[in-house]
Design brief:
By secondary structure, the chain is mainly alpha-helical. It has one domain. Helix 1 packs across helix 2. The protein is elongated, with a radius of gyration of 16 Å. Helix content is about 55%, strand content about 5%.
């Protein structure tokens, strides 16, 4: 039963990965300067300036583009 369930979820997983890859590729069009300094942001869903950040900021922006 578990194997059938996993096989049914496989197409959704592939689509989600494809969307994430597309979102990450789109982030390549933005210039982001590494800035590891502390900045106060709104909670929840706050963000630093779009042209600043660290690696996790770029990953989070990619997920947010997907609505996650």
């Amino acid at each position: 039963m578990n194997k059938i369930f996993l096989l049914l979820l496989l197409p959704f997983s592939i689509l989600a990965q494809s969307s994430l890859v597309d979102s990450v590729k789109e982030r390549l069009n933005h210039i982001v300067i590494y800035d590891g300094s502390y900045q106060r942001i709104d909670y929840p869903n706050g963000d630093v300036d779009a042209n600043k950040g660290v690696c996790t900021d770029v990953v989070i922006r990619s997920y947010r583009a997907l609505g996650v």
